[in-house]
Amino acid sequence: MVVGAQATDVDTVVIGSGPGGYVAAIRAAELGKKVTIIEKDNIGGVCLNIGCIPSKALINIGHHYTDAMEEAEKKNPFGLSVNDVKLDWDAAQAWKQDKVVSQLTGGVKMLLKKHKIDVIKGTAEFVDNETINVEQEDGFKLLHFNDVIIATGSRPIEIPPFPFGGRIVDSTGALSLPEVPKHLIIVGGGVIGSELGGAYRMLGSKITIVEGLDHILNGFDKEMSDIIAKRVKSAGSEIFTSAMAKSAVQTDKDVTLTFEVDGKEQTVTGDYLLVSVGRRPNTDLIGLNNTDVKMTDRGLIEVTDSYETNVPHIYAIGDVVPGPMLAHKASFQAKVAAAAIAGAEDAVDLHVALPAVAYTTTELATVGETPDSIQGRTDVKISKFPFAANGRAISMNDTTGFLRLITETKEGAIIGAQIVGPGASDLISGLSLAIENGLTSKDISLTIQPHPTLGEAIMDTAELADGLPIHV
Question: Is the domain covering 362-466 a CATH 3.90.180.10 domain?
């Protein structure tokens, strides 16, 4: 930046174009603001390019490959058989990137163009409370803004014993391995590690997960995660919990992890080591130290219910503010912040239901209260219905898991729900709607569900909560 350079006046700036940034930009434009997006990488952010979307594409490839292999080995009950199943890894990667990712990011670009949103390619850094410097390939640009929304997302945490490079990869690297590993070691059994591990396990890899806590998928209760752990182990893979990863040594051909369990040191050697121990907010490299914006000791930005910081006209959303790092959370907050900038008096976040999903081999989903969060309460009831009693699940040959409702005993209000099983990621939406709108188990049980569907499990669980179950 050249001292004394003239700044260009702009209206609303959004830093980042992920599911928080691009949604904020479009909504602000819809509400009459002239918007400029600053993006240092690719439109769509981590989610569309190297996160949520490509990982789900990889998981889908894994499901198809597993189904085909079961047919080839005559392990399915449908009387189907095929010969000579082969995986063209380059073709699979090309479909993931050139079809899935490109189609979605291209769609976002078209939407930004439709709403006349200016896009500046470059790295943003605050100069003060009202000015941003954008470093571009061919120079820099100073912007003097009226309002700004910080939507810079997060990045994988890199820890000293396991620097990324070579055969030690983060989640981004794991999505684009040059081949399907025979053995993939994973440090961190959270959602990202378990999802990617599940994808590669379906593609034929042996998986070893080393997790520091007492169970994998710690964002879900142990009853749920144990179902996934059992399935992983039944396929010949390994899970070590309450374990401490200590060091790794890699060669041109493999990588060896040293870890400790119950005071005993062990080693495991694999083709690649995925380190997935969490993510850190991208707030440290955007010049916030040049502003008066207040931060937490974890590097998160403090905000109000409208996602405004302590500095008027500076807003922040998504992974850079407190709360779970979820794409759909960022998108919701984006709409609130955009409405606040546009002057809407009711632009506050009052939501009560924030669902979370793990796209493991058997999907997990949760929203609202959990068995752990209601411990000690005597005014609630837990009702659980098995997918083994659901006609649609049986006809799909996929009966693993259950649907659980947590209701208040007095009025029957639904305050929590968890699902392990087929279609969990889609079924949780209806239960989020129920919690958000204060619906009761009676409201659900009196709603006619089409037959045969997985959705009937919601009705059956509600009837169980009402004390009038039919199918259990």
Answer: no
Among 285, 9, 302, residue whose Cα is nearest residue 147: 9
Q: Which of 63, 328, 351, 451 is catalytic?
A: 451
The whole-model pTM stands at: 0.95
Assign 432 to helix, strand or coil: helix
Domain spans of the chain, in order of start: 8-58+90-155+280-342, 168-277, 362-466
* Measured distance CA(432)–CA(143) in Å, rounded: 40
Active site residue 215: no
Q: Which CATH superfamily is domain 168-277 in?
A: FAD/NAD(P)-binding domain (3.50.50.60)
Identity at 81, one-letter amino acid code: S
Q: How far is it, in rounded angstroms, from Cα 420 to Cα 393?
A: 12
Is it true that 8-58+90-155+280-342 and 168-277 share their CATH fold? yes
Measured between alpha carbons, how far is 194 from 398 in angstroms, rounded to an integer? 20
SS3 356: strand
Query: What is the number of other CB atoms lying within 10 angstroms of the CB of residue 116?
Result: 9
CATH fold of 8-58+90-155+280-342 reads FAD/NAD(P)-binding domain (3.50.50)
Q: Provide the residue-wise pLDDT of the chain in tens; the chain has 472 residues.
A: 556 679 999 999 999 999 999 999 999 999 999 999 999 999 999 999 999 999 999 999 999 999 999 888 888 888 888 888 999 999 999 999 999 999 999 999 999 999 999 999 999 999 999 999 999 999 999 999 999 999 999 999 999 999 999 999 999 999 999 999 999 999 999 999 999 999 999 999 999 999 999 999 999 999 999 999 999 999 899 999 999 999 999 999 999 999 999 999 999 999 999 999 999 999 999 999 999 999 999 999 999 999 999 999 999 999 999 999 999 999 999 999 999 999 998 899 999 999 999 999 999 999 999 999 999 999 999 999 999 999 999 999 999 999 999 999 999 999 999 999 999 999 999 999 999 999 999 999 999 999 999 999 999 999 999 999 999 9
